[in-house]
Structures are given as structure tokens and as C-alpha cells.
Amino acid sequence: MTETPPGTAERVVVVGGGHAGTTLAGLLRQGGYRGELVLLGSETDLPYQRPPLSKKFDGDGPVQWLRPAEFYREQDITVRLGEQVTVVDRAARRVRTASGGTYAYDVLVLATGAVPRGLTLPGADTRGVITLRTLSDARVLRGYLADRGRLVIVGGGYIGLEVAAAARANGVEVTVVEREGRVLARVASTRFSQALTRHHRARGTDIVTGARVVGLTSRHGHVDGVELADHGRLECDAVLVGVGAVPQDGLARAAGLECDEGIVVDGRARTGDPSVLAIGDATRRPVAGVPGSLRLESIPSATEQARQACSVILGTATPAAEVPWFWSDQFGLKLKIAGVVREPGDSGAQVTRGTAVRGDPSSERFALFHHEDRIVTAVESANAPADFAAGRKFIASRRRVDPARLADPGTPLSEAVMN
Questions:
Q1: Second CATH level (architecture) for the domain 129-243
Q2: pTM for this one?
């Protein structure tokens, strides 16, 4: 298969109108790309910010456009909305859409994102049982919250907790149901999880952990209850399902590209086909300082991969690897997390793991510095931007630190580094 030399692509086609694909289109024009640039989005709305969908349900609602409509005209970016790509023909270098459209490419970028994982339980398809991924989903959820009904959230991940906080702020009765023994069990440390649980419960969120949903009941065709294996039945007026997301790698699989719970790419967003790149939530990629590969669902990760893809297409220097991070807003907490949290019992090399706690986790300002052999590997923070920024630098530098100094609020963080 002939490779398009870097910097010579005359036509770039981006499949996916989310943050990753839209950011790449802007970066290409900013970097001087003058070829044809086509952005194919399956939704009918212009590309928009997804984080506000789970955070903002008052005022003007969750709509925040990534770029104004005139941006695409001014930058000569062809945007085709409501176009679902169905086939990638790698041999002919073209894609086909459900509407019958055909788009040839020199470089194809798959930015297909992920979709919410659904429930395969009795009653899961009942009216009033919703997921949250698109602007349309957010509009439906906003309608339920406006009615001040009872909301049950199945899944205690970040999306579920963000919606719970927004709902409680609007006076909605909320119950979060989590199958694991604590919320955020797969993505946060036990201490961080406990701190957020206390914060939510103090503000009226009912959190039920170790609970398995076995079915949903309905009345007149609309959901009215969630049945739990060992905790009875929860009455409700709406159910939000937030049990994770599934990468949309079907196109890549059908095209013969390597996939492993996500499209497999290298540290420059390249697939096994030199003419096909992949970026964003649909990918599985190497992360600096972490063994193997990961699928990261975050805006910073999507932006980093967009920069990588841009450098490949333009033939410019590879951008430096970044420490993975993301944020979450819950009530008055501005949460920022960097690195990959590994609990003391996690599998891996034999290392001495610990956590330096700076501040009081029962308060609204604290930071948790997780370290292995005195090297910081992750930081979880609440309303502590300076601590978070220092933590990212510690992770990137891999310099040894003194945990006792990290934990002492009276000691400047710069003095925690060991010479």
C-alpha cells in the first residue's frame, strides 16, 4: 500500500465531529495546511463541547459550540453533518456514507469517539431510561430535571456523579447506584472516592454501593422503578445509565485495522495503515510512564492526539508526550486528576506505593499525591490548582520526592523534591 509522504496530502477526511476531529481540523489550518479538508459528523448539530452535557442544566443549557459556524467557512473546512460513514475502502482510499456519499482521501483520520454502554436487563428500553453522550441526550435529561422528579443514576463514575451534583443543585431527588463497593472504583483512589462520597451525601445525594440492578419497572410505558438484587426497589421518574462507554471501532475493524477494545495506534496516532490515523476516545494508545497501552476518555487526551496527527500530516516535529489528565466539576469542587492511579494492591512490578495527603480530604481543598518508590505517579486534587500543577510536573520529571514534605501544607512543594 502506497504511503502519502508527510506534508504532501492533498485531501484529508476526518470521520467524527467531536472534540478530537474538530481540534485537528483547526490545527491543520493553523499549521498552514492548504489542501482539501472534509469533516464528516454523524450528528446534525455543529461540533460542540461534551463536558457541559453532564455539568450544566440551568440557564441557557449545555450548548457550547467548539467553533462558531463562520469558522468553518473562513477556514475552508467542508463540514457534512448527519453523515454516517459505513465503509472504509482502504485499497481505493475512500469512505462511503449511509446516504450514498463517497469521499476520497489521501489521509483518513478516524475520530469516531465512544458511545455509552447500555443495560441488557428487563425494562432497559423503557421510556425514561436514558444515556448521556449527545446534545440530544442532554436536552432530554434537562427536561426530566426541570420536572423535579426522582432520578436514579445507575453507575457511580464521573459522569454519574457530575449529573448527580447538577441535579441536586436543581432540587432533584437523586440516588446513585454503584455495583462496586465504592464510587469511581476503576478510576480513582479509595481516599478520593471516600472524600467525594462524603461530599455528595452531605448535599443530599443518596449513594448505594455494592448494589446490582436486576431490572427496571414501568407504569403506562414509562420507567417508575429500579429493582436491585439485595436492596429492594427504588422508585423514580427517570433513570440515567452511566456504566461506561464503548469505543466506536467498528469501522476500523471492518477495514482490517488492529483493534483491542479501541483502535490501536502508536504514540503518533498512526494505525497499521500509513494513510489512516485515529484519535480520541475510540483509540487505545501508549501513555508515557505507563506499561502497555490505555484507552483514555478525556478532552486533554483528544487534544494531544490531534496534535500528534497534525504533525504526521504536515511532516513536522512530533510534539512532546504529555502527562494524562482530566477534570470534573461537582458542587463547589473543581477536581483535577493527573497520571494513572494504582492502588497498593494493583498488579505490577514490586514497588513501594504510598500516598501523601496534603490538606484535609473532609474539607473542600486537598490533594493526594500517589507515589511509587518516592516517584509521583498520580495526583488527585480538589480546589487545589497549584498542588495539581506541581503534581503534573512531578509526574513528568520522575524525580524522587519526600512524602513527608509533600504532606506538610507549610512546606513549599518545590522543597519536596529530593536532591
A1: 3-Layer(bba) Sandwich (3.50)
A2: 0.94
